[in-house]
Amino acid sequence: MTYLIILFICLFSSIIGAICGIGGGVIIKPVFDAFGIMPVKVVSFLSGCTVLSMSVVSFYKNMRYNTERSFQKEFAVTLALGSVIGGILGKSWFQKLLLFFPEQNNVGAVQSAVLLVITVGTLIYTIKKDSIKTFRVHSKAVILFIGIILGIMSSFLGIGGGPINLVVLFYLFSMATKEAALYSIFIIFFSQLSSLLSMIYTRTIPDFQTVHLLLMISCGVAGGYIGSWFNKKLNDKQVSQLFMFVLILIVFTCIYNIQKYL
Question: Residue 121, CB half-sphere, CA atoms under 13 Å: how many?
Answer without folding.
Answer: 14
